[in-house]
Design goal:
alpha+beta, Glutamine Phosphoribosylpyrophosphate, subunit 1, domain 1, 11 helices, 14 strands, binds glycine
Length: about 350
Amino acid sequence: MEALNRRTFLRTTVLTGAAALALPEFSDAQSRPSIERKTVVISSGNGIAATAKAMEMIQQGNDALDAVIAGVNIVENDPNDMTVGYGGLPNEEGIVELDSSVMHGPTHRAGAVASLQNIKNPSLVAKMVMERTDHVLLVGEGALKFARMHGFTEENLLTEQSREMWVKWKENLSTEDDYLPPHTIDDKNIGSKMSEVMKTYGTINCLGKDQQGNISGVTTTSGMSYKIPGRVGDSPIIGAGLYVDNSVGAAGSTGRGEANLVSCSSVLIVEFMRQGKSPEEACLMACKRIVEQTKMKRLQDDQGRPNFNVTFYAINKRGEHGSASIWNGGTYCLNDGTSNKKSDSAFLYKRI
Ligand code: GLY
């Protein structure tokens, strides 16, 4: 494996603490009216349908939050995306638990739900929390009761495909328990093929800037596959899995939520952009911060680098955009109003 620093990252100077917070706010709203009208939508690599839908709605004059939520609803409803909504991989007991957050730039409000069962569009429940409660985050049974109160329909979110994946994981967890995967009379060490059933952290984050120059975002996920029931990742945590400041920009994340929860990368990325960093530079700086803060040996490779990945996505008030991961292989989708395409994210390290 070889360490790679992006050209832009080499130019970057990390500012921390009080010095960083004391810098003037990034704002070009008055001085650049044409820039204000530049629309953009970015999402994680699984969001090509989401960015298309969100931009279509933005071009029809809709608010960026309604647009990005409509975009991710497509992915939440897609049984073939096993990291989000319906068909998402379940917890260790085979129950799908969903997390989501939304943040509305112009009103600086947010809403979120965590460990929500039986509702396939947690992003819509998160928006309802934002609009119809005095709270920001509802979890578990309380979130479900709230969703029921507002007429959301309950359904079993575990598809045949995700149930089969869960059974395979459970049967291969250990050679010591009583669950056995399919085997023959000659097989030994039955139930130890963990390399075939790795845990996943897939998620969709989608950020948009509308025709009014307003910025909003959403993150939605089924979280870490086969998690301990009640585990909550970074996606529903404002400042970690999503953050929006309408005068600066927005950021969101996918990947190992536990790493992001202890670094609060989304708010960090917005603060780096406030200091004048480009979205891509800011995302790379957040990746570097996670590298510096990953101290546990069990989470490091033999060169002391994180043995997991996270990917960040960001847009700023000018409609500029960027994405970066710790490891290569990250992708993002972008719609700038003229094309809807998938690109590689910047990265710190390359797997060879
Ligand atoms: N980033 C999604 C999760 O860790 O749940």
